[in-house]
Amino acid sequence: MSRRSITAMPTSLERPVFILSPPRSGSTLLYKVLSEAPDAWTTKRESHLLIETIPGLHPRDRGWDSNRLLAADAQPHIVDELTRRLIARMSDRDGRAPSAGDRPTLLEKTPKNCLRVPFFAAAYPDARFIYIHREPVETINSMIEGWRVPPPKFKTYPDLPGWAGPTWSFLLIPGWQELNSRGVPEIAARQWATATQLLLEDCTALPEDRWYVADFRHLVAEPAKEIGRICDFLGWSYDRPLTAPLPLSGSQISAPDPGKWRRNADELEAVLPLTQTAADLARSALATRRV
Fold first, then answer.
1. DSSP 8-class letter at 91
2. Rounded percentage of the chain residues whose pLDDT exceeds 90
3. CB-based burial label for 260 (10 Å; 0-12, 13-18, 19+)
4. pLDDT in tens, 68-78
5. Phi, psi (degrees; rounded to nearest 5) at 245
6. Which residue, 18, 122, 201, 211, is the most exposed by fewest CB within 10 angstroms?
7. Which residues fall within 8 angstroms of residue 73, CB to CB, at 6 or more apart?
8. Contact between 18 and 240 (Cβ < 8 Å)
9. What are phi and psi of 140, to 5 degrees?
């Protein structure tokens, strides 16, 4: 456990916060900014291995179906192990590990978690969820770029059984097998649409006080105001200075540019109709769930 005493650590999480979004939606930027809040405790990285090395949670253990996890998967022994691992890796913004007297509030960001809302909602009944919305054309364009980046960046399942396409990148969605003969633009569009629709359907089933919608464009243009809205929802304080432009998140493939999707306009226009239902849900959530 890397020099941490098990007996000196808390054994439960206090109202954990999960940032939700499809890949390449700005969640890393939001995570980095919110991790500077005095109330936030983080593992300082995405939790892919932390979660998927727990027996029963890797897609391999589930017949390679997908990254989807439901409430029934939140078995007590699994939740206990997940909680133990998260606490063992958590620290506050100053790098301090939690002690027995702390009631740490986890801030977590792993894009696959947009397929796991029912699992986390059942595992942690007081958990809150922040969905960050970014325009689909921008996000899908960035996902296409990610699929085309040479390994290992963004490559998640290089030996995916039955997959004959390019090395699998990003989250493994339900129905991925149907994409075997599809091009990268359609794969990325289907990933975005499936992830967005599932996370919004799952969040809508929760009480309203358990989820909030953040706006990537407002985060970039008016970071102090957007972070203020989010912290008001969470009941957090925030004492770091915030001015636009925010520092780059470190996960960029190419230089930030709101219009760079136009470089792939023909490919995007061919697949955007596949995203219409999910895009409508996302825009509706953005319009109705912001305070």
1. B
2. 84
3. middle
4. 999 999 999 99
5. -80, 145
6. 201
7. 56, 57, 119
8. no
9. -65, -40
What span, in angstroms and rounded, lies between the C-alpha atoms of 220 and 245? 7
Question: Distance (Å, rounded) from C-alpha 15 to C-alpha 81?
Answer: 17
Residues 6+ apart with CB under 8 A from 25: 111, 132, 133, 134, 139, 216
pLDDT category of residue 291 using cuts at 50, 70 and 90: low
Give the C-alpha separation, 209 to 249, whole Å.
Answer: 28
- For residues 1 and 58, is the Cβ–Cβ distance under 8 A? no
Structure tokens at 235: 């009941």
Q: Are 65 and 174 in contact (CB under 8 A)?
A: yes
Q: Are 56 and 101 in contact (CB under 8 A)?
A: no
How does DSSP classify residue 92?
A: -
Nearest to 42 by CA among 55, 56, 30, 54: 30
Tokens for 232? 């008001």
Phi-psi region of 165 (alpha: psi -120 to 50; beta: other; left: phi over 0): beta
Instruction: Please report the pLDDT score of residue 3 as a whole number.
Output: 44
Q: Tokens 């620290």: give the residue.
A: 91
pLDDT tens figures, 195-228: 999 999 999 999 999 999 999 999 999 999 999 9
CA 59/CA 77 separation, integer angstroms? 18
Question: Domain 6-289 falls in which CATH fold?
Answer: Rossmann fold (3.40.50)
E strand intervals along the chain: 17-20, 40-41, 105-109, 128-133, 155-157, 168-169, 211-215
Q: Kindly calculate the radius of gyration of the chain based on its CA atoms and give it in whole angstroms.
A: 19
Say how far apart CA 145 and CA 137 lie, in whole Å: 12
